[in-house]
Amino acid sequence: MWQNDGSGFFTNITEISNTGCGGYSRGANFADFDNDGDLDLFINRASAPKMLYLNIDEGIFVDYSQEAGIVESAGGFGCAVGDLDADGQIDIIAANSDFVRKQVYINQNANPTFLKVKVNGLSPNTLALGAIIELYGDVGPTMGRELIGKREISSHPSFYCVNDLVVHFGTGEHTELQVVVYFQSLAVKDTFGVVPGEMIILEEPFRTSADEPGLPLPRKHITLSAYPNPFNSSSIISVNGGDSEKYSLAIYDMLGRQVRSAEISNVSTRPITYTWDGKNDNGYAVPSGVYFVHVRAEKTSSELKITLLR
Ligand SMILES: [Ca+2]
Ligand SMILES: [Ca+2]
Ligand SMILES: [Ca+2]
């Protein structure tokens, strides 16, 4: 288990996280099996019993296999997760090697704190593969919102297996939710007032984030836009909301490496703007590609995809 610190450095946390079960395995899947809001872990081991780890404290796991009734020790291959019986509890299919039946594990929890999100993309990417879904939850009437989950719609979660493309979140104690979908087309879909215990269906909009007008967010929330986007020489990044005196801006490349950073403070005019000239902190031009602009204020943050075309 390697923990990414967000700047491209990883720390081996196998021991600390208590996930060093060893053995040979070809498939593993993170999902929120108990709907409490954090990601748990299923490992389809080949030569030892399959493992279900519950995340009990921000990345500290406990072996819950026996309690969950997951005791089989067949030659595991990949594994896939999805809500097979549509009760909001995420289930598991474990694929196995020759002559061994697959196992289907139906989750017997009845915890109603979940949200399912089905995303329909525009042609040709109608499955919306590559879309990033962020889930925000309320943290009290005066505190604004908090990022409580992030998923990618992916076609390659595990060896020879594809998860259900309906994205599942556990929502824990949050009662009012906001869902933001970032599509590969750069379109953004932002949905408010969502409550736990249901499945919502979101359609990819035709407009891109650069065209999106100011969203009706409370002032404590940040919305970002960039014009032009895609850009060639420079793009003006506008920051709306946040209601803060100080903002930190960071720009990352597709590999998560920070290429540019800035502090914006004592701002009196709105919207706040920052002009990015396509250069890194050392003054060198960065290559064409997709970049992520991350802006953080006191209690909130927001991210925007921006494309540089040289
Ligand atoms: Ca969990
Ligand atoms: Ca937990
Ligand atoms: Ca289920």
Produce a short descriptive summary.
The chain is mainly beta.
Strand content: 35-45%
Structural class by secondary-structure content: mainly beta
Largest sheet: 4 strands, antiparallel
Percent helix among the residues?
under 10%
Q: What is the residue-mean pLDDT, rounded to a whole number?
A: 89
Helix and strand run: EEHEEEEHEEEEEEEEEEEEEEEEE
Arrangement of strands in the largest sheet? 3-4-5-6
Radius of gyration from the alpha-carbon trace, in angstroms = 21 Å
First-residue to last-residue Cα separation: 38 Å
Coarse morphology: globular
Which small-molecule species are bound to the chains here? calcium ion
The DSSP helix count reads: 2
